[in-house]
Structure formats: structure tokens, C-alpha cells
Amino acid sequence: MFRLVLLSMGMMFLISACAIPVEADPDTAVVSPSDDAIETPAAANPFQPLESDAVLQHGEVFIDSADLLILESYPVQINLVLQGNLPTPCHQLRIVANQPDENNRILVEVYSVVDPEQVCIQMLESFEVTYHLGSFPTGSYTILVNGEEIGTFDS
To answer: Which of 35, 86, 135, 137 has the fewest Cβ atoms surrounding its Cβ within 10 A?
Structure first.
């Protein structure tokens, strides 16, 4: 048993000693992302309205909590954490974040859509989502979700 353990350790040592270290080329320039490369909220929104929503009925969303999550990165990234309930399991969540207005207020609309012809059990469907708002130019911003102020941040 001891020989087997010793042999296994020796093999691991030999294999790790044969690994080739990879180093960065010192002549390669480090490039920061341009302002055009900064992700916009619409590009990262899995809850964006779809063309097929035109035939669906708008519904409510019951938001229990909404918090801002400010990531320590450069540029500063802002996430919105939402917890709540949809009216039924058949409702689909939609989130639309508008660009900041002249007062640096970011209006976020949260609603649901549902097929009115679909038969569905009448019970609340809970959700918890982290919605990526993105990064913003230098300034102080206020986030409003369905008209209610959630918080402020500086970027």
C-alpha cells in the first residue's frame, strides 16, 4: 500500500514537472476597452420584450424587494436584484431599462406578459433575477423601478 502511494505521488510530481509554463509576451500591448465596447443594457437583457409580445396581454408583477448591486470593477458595473412574484406560472417576466434622462434618472419597467387564451393554474410564481444594467459615464444616478426609487450610485 505504501509503495502504491509513493508511486502515485512520484508520478504526479513527474507529470507536474513536465508542464510548460505559459508567460505573457512582454511586447504585447495591454488595451483598455473603448467606450463603444461597453455593454449596453439592451444587449445583456434576457428579459427584453419580443416581437411575439404584441399578441400577448400585459400583466402585473409583484415586486417584494429591489436592490442595487454595485460591482467593484472598472468601469463600475451596476446590477439590479429583483425578488417578487408573477401572477401565474404562465406569465413571462419582462424588464426594460431606459437610458438615463436629463436628470440622470434610469427608469426601469418591470412587467409580465401572458397569452390570454392559455389555461393556467391560478397561483403566484416567485422569481429572483439579477438584471445587468451595465456601466455609465461619470456622474450620480438614481434608479427607479416602476416609478419607485430603488437607490442611487456614482460612477
So the answer is: 35
Judging by beta carbons within 10 Å of its beta carbon (0-12, 13-18, 19+), is residue 102 exposed, middle or buried? exposed
pTM over 0.90: no
Q: Which residue range forms the structural domain that includes residue 93?
A: 41-154
The answer to whether 144 touches 82, Cβ cutoff 8 Å, is no
At 6 the pLDDT is 53
Split into its structural domains, the chain has a count of: 1
Residue of 84, 51, 53, 55 whose CA lies nearest to 67: 84
Burial pattern 22-46, b for ≥16 Cβ within 10 A else e, equals eeeeeeeeeeeeeeeeeeebeeebe
**Residue 85 falls inside a structural domain:** yes
pLDDT digit string (tens) for 78-105?
A: 999 999 999 999 999 999 999 999 999 9
Helix spans in the chain (H): 2-17
**Location of C-alpha cell 436629463:** 102
The model's pLDDT over 15-51, given as tens digits with 9 standing for 90+, comes to: 555 544 445 445 444 444 444 444 444 455 789 999 9
Whether 56 has a pLDDT exceeding 50, the answer reads yes
